[in-house]
Input
Amino acid sequence: MPIRPLPRLSLLAALLLLCVVACAPPSLPFSRLAGLITTGQLDEISGLAASHVHEDVLWVINDGGNPAELYAINRRGRVLARYDVRGARNIDWEDLASFTLQGRHYLLVADTGDNAGKRKDIVLHVFEEPARLDGGELKPAWTIRARWPDGPRDCEAVAVDAAAGQVLLVSKKRNPPDLFALPLARSRGVREARRIGRLAGVPLASAELRRNDPRLARLFPQVTAADLSPDGSTLAVLTYGSVLFYRRTPGENWSAAVARMPEAHDVPLIPQAEALAWSAGGAGLYATGEFKPAPLFYLSPDR
Output
């Protein structure tokens, strides 16, 4: 469920803010304003994924408390299509991933949010990506039900390593964050997520921020999104304050890769940054957050 460290701004104020951001000197990784998502249907974006079927298209979901829907938008933020999901509830949708498996293109919706720490299990829904952007209904191709090995926890960051046949999940409120894995394959019953590592080097809030805004400082290092680069080499992780890149060498597992210090950069000026996705070709990433209107940034990491 959403945590709102920043107040909502009016449309005019948001546009003025974005003008300031667009004109500000770029930081590393280079970030630029790609678009603005203004539709009232997308005011709590919690997940973002690049299409591998449609050129220059991104898929978007809303957080829990909203209808179970998938949206296709272009890189400027305009809605292209909306799909009603049948056979799955939006209890607390928190991330979205796209992947290719055995020549088919899929979208994975992570119903893994648990701000109150009360859920007995989590659910991952896999949809075959629509061949046409004409709207309508979608039903899961399969669903993965799972539980944590040590009781309920909040999770807003999920990525798919299709080559390894696994889903990667990063806990939100633990410090350091834990990395878990689940099989991607179809299964019956409830699986247990397996902890495979901990993320090193997640930046904490500065001493100044801790003095001036203790609540925001506590939120600063919390992990809100993740995505795996198309070539499988780099796990990008988003927090409220940073964008992190964990790179692995050929043959290395993720347990070892996330144990090393990541490449870390300040997050662009995104109110409540909670969505991150590699572009389809892997040249950069898109990022946005739970805000209306929502700025859509493009990040170009030094790879």
The mean pLDDT is 90. The helical segments are 11-23, 207-212, 214-219, 254-257. The first strand starts at residue 30 and ends at 37.
